[in-house]
Records
---
Amino acid sequence: QVQLVESGGASVQAGGSLRLSCAASGDVSSLKAMAWFRQATGKEREGVALIFRDAHSTLYDDSVKGRFTISRDTAKNTVFLQMDSLKPEDTAMYYCAAAMSWGYWRDRDMYQYWGQGTQVTVSA
């Protein structure tokens, strides 16, 4: 079992920055990858960024490339999402997810564990 706890969500103005954190505990050695998803009101949950176990390989949704950076502190079992140049369309609940098997990274079924989410609100 793996437990995920997100933090760092807040309300900011457009152009601002936030850093989200996801602390993992439990059987973290079995994880293949961790990711951030987001879900805006009335919309499907979508993949934002993924980082592989080696902490060097990453993937991003086109909408956040160049603005968001996913990283990992292996010693602390924590994954971060640095969000810069935030836009109102980034407003959503952000979820941390962890996968113990491989699949298509945008497919929610790839992930066995999810956090409770942290709210990000960007005002114009």
Note: The mean pLDDT is 96.
---
Amino acid sequence: QVQLVESGGGLVQAGGSLRLSCAASGRTFSGYAMGWFRQAPGKEREFVAAINWSGGSTFYADSVKGRFTISRDNAWNTVYLQMNSLKPEDTAVYYCAADKTGWGSMNLERYDYWGQGTQVTVSS
């Protein structure tokens, strides 16, 4: 069992930056791939970024490529999402998720554990 707790959300102006953190419990964190997803009001949850178990492989949604960076620190059981050049359309609840296969995916159904989410609001 893995429990995930996101933090770092908030209100920021367009063009600003935020760094989200996701702290995981459990001794097997380093074996999981981690992903970030987001859900805006009235929309489906969508993939943002993912990182494999070692941190050696990352992938991003086209909409955030070049602006967001996912990273992990297995010593601290934490995954991060650095978000730069934020746009109003980035406004959403952001969720982290854990995939026990270790490889990660853009498909949310591949993830086994989810956090409660953190709100990110970007004003224009």
Note: The chain is about 0% helix and 50% strand.
---
Amino acid sequence: VQLQASGGGLVQAGGSLRLSCAASGRTFDFYRMGWFRQAPGKEREYVASISWGASGRTSYADAVGGRFTISRDNSQTTVLLQMNSLKPEDTAVYYCAAKTQTGGIYEISQWDYWGQGTLVTVSS
């Protein structure tokens, strides 16, 4: 499995960015895909995720709820993260991830595959 993240960049506070993660390989094993982020000097934290089944059920961290939207394109096995009303505290390296089993979603140990990060910088 390979996960390829893209879409990061520099944006002013209040602006928007859209991240994309393209998956290849044994994607039919996926149960859920999601995004984590890691700010300088901080631990990697959960951002959002979406189920890969028919429900497409989504989940968001409290810090991004109402501003970020996660979606998927099953035909292209791509997951998107639309980020609006960005704040300087959203500055981080964003990582996409995939998991193949049910269970917890908030810890990095609960995810099976990781993409390389893409840097998002929000200036004040």
Note: The CA atoms of residues 46 and 107 lie 7 Å apart.
---
Amino acid sequence: EVQLVESGGGSVQAGGSLRLSCVASGYISGSLDMAWFRQVPGKGREGVAAIEDDGEITYEEFAKGRFTISSEKAKSHLTAHLDMNDLKPEDTATYYCAADVSARWLSQSEYQYWGQGTQVTVSS
């Protein structure tokens, strides 16, 4: 069973930066695709960025140029980061880390494992 533990959320002013991290452990296959999603109350969960095991990266349009997804492999776990720059009030949301052994695209339905979420609040 894959476990995902997120960290790094918080409150910043518009224009500021945050780094979110997600540690994935417990996977057996040796490969894992990871992604970040976000959700605001009353709306569905939307994709932000994804990084596949082979390093291929996908960004949603609003994240291009401001957000950077990366990953680090260790012997027993995998860590995914989301560096967010030039944050805007509309980026305020709960951010979720997601993982799957083989995600085809950046869609909630493609990911089996989910973190607990971390809150990001951007004030104007």
Note: The chain has a mean pLDDT of 94.
